[in-house]
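Risk register update: the risk that structure generation would not scale has been downgraded. Supporting records follow, first protein first.
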Amino acid sequence: MTSKEFMSKKLEEDKENYDSSNMSYCPETEPVEGLNILIHHFLGEDWYVPDPMNTEQIITIAVTKILELYPNRAFAERFKNIWKYIKFEESE
């Protein structure tokens, strides 16, 4: 789902409250619905947890998997640079 498709869907669902003259209008999304959309986007439509768990546990597993697959590269690069500096200081 693209961002445009998502917003079109949300606007269609909330069309009775939508006013095209109000450019700052943004429809609401339930947290679990938003997480499900992100899970499908990042992990794929066919991703699932085979074990019987509650929604909160499945969300924890999904968030962990997404963070594993899409690490914060900027943080990783900073950590590498800091580690090089620490190793350099130790060798002197």
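Supporting record for the second protein:
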Amino acid sequence: MEVLGIIALLCAFIWWRVKAGDQLIPKPTPTPSQKKFAAMGNIGGWPIENVIKRVGPPSSISAIAGGQLYQWMKVGALGGFHYAISVDAEGKVIGYTHQFAR
């Protein structure tokens, strides 16, 4: 009988939280790096060095046709991000090729 009472209280609590609009699992808050990427806006034509000064060193740099691909990645239990920026042979940003944050 006690188990049923506990289950009933738990169900009532969950219903109350859902009804109130709260989430049972909190949304992850944006990391400082995510905020820095968002604050930059349109980066087309920027020197890649300016991007690195603002957000920190990339997680990886890969060769692509006509330039390089710079990537910033972080994975966590409640979220993460992945930003990829293509850069031409002269070191100027072409633009984002991938933006994902959760």
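The domain at 28-101 is CATH 3.30.1450.10 (Beta-lactamase Inhibitory Protein; Chain:B, domain 1). On this basis the risk owner (M.S.) recommends closing the item.
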